[in-house]
Amino acid sequence: MTRPAYLVSDGDVLLPSTTCKGPWGQTISGHVVGGILARSLEQVGSGPDLVPARLTVDLLRPTAIAPLEVRTTVQRDGRRIRLVDAELVQNDVVVSRASAVFLRRGEHPAGEIWSSPVAMPPLPPDPGPLPDDLMMFVWGYGGDGGSSGAMAFTEWGDATGPKYAWIRQVRPLVEGEVTSPFVAVAMAADAASATSHWGTGGLRYINADYTLTLAREPVGDYIGLAATSHTSQDGVAAGAATVFDVHGPIGNATTVGLVNPVESFHPRA
């Protein structure tokens, strides 16, 4: 079954549907915002042998479920590096912004470099029929990251151990378009906030921004996030996760969060 897209393109304007609604109120979910910005950055920044290597998304204001547009600017267009900025605009107000670096492929150097070992739990089993209103498919592993997982983030519960999530998009970002691997991983990277900031009280932090770094684009439908660190003080949190595809690690995601004083977030994804 093909689910309705999050957005419809009408010239330079994007029209969001109610499927865009996020968990924090009557606003567009952060992962959709990230996808919109990544899509526009890729349209302007991609080129022969250029790969997206870094994306930073600043979630400046709540984004209403209302018409919006993206304005992009090429800040640098060098022989090996292209830097592009984008702004998401509603009613002439910038509600979110992003920047991306595209790097040209080259000869890979010889030698080995140390990296902290991180492994993802196995891919999820076939979940069977999914709810029609599902935003994206999330399979979470909590605690020790053992072989048992659950739909959404419910398996994490009050666990204090490492958190892992396999994420698969189940609907197009824009009607009539195939969501690119870069846009898909950009959307999944928003969940680095939940993966790294989830604690015994659930998710108490609102995502203020996130940065995705990539050595290569993902292969396949599943994007994995393995939490690697969380640090917090006085209601401000910094977190990080390693990003995976089915073949192994492909990059990292970092995120900064601000405490939500109202209530914790227990999503059903």
Automatic annotation (TrEMBL):
<feature type="domain" description="Acyl-CoA thioesterase-like C-terminal">
    <location>
        <begin position="163"/>
        <end position="259"/>
    </location>
</feature>
<dbReference type="InterPro" id="IPR049450">
    <property type="entry name" value="ACOT8-like_C"/>
</dbReference>
<feature type="domain" description="Acyl-CoA thioesterase-like N-terminal HotDog">
    <location>
        <begin position="23"/>
        <end position="102"/>
    </location>
</feature>
<dbReference type="Pfam" id="PF13622">
    <property type="entry name" value="4HBT_3"/>
</dbReference>
<protein>
    <submittedName>
        <fullName>Thioesterase family protein</fullName>
    </submittedName>
</protein>
<dbReference type="InterPro" id="IPR042171">
    <property type="entry name" value="Acyl-CoA_hotdog"/>
</dbReference>
<dbReference type="InterPro" id="IPR049449">
    <property type="entry name" value="TesB_ACOT8-like_N"/>
</dbReference>
<dbReference type="InterPro" id="IPR029069">
    <property type="entry name" value="HotDog_dom_sf"/>
</dbReference>
<dbReference type="Pfam" id="PF20789">
    <property type="entry name" value="4HBT_3C"/>
</dbReference>
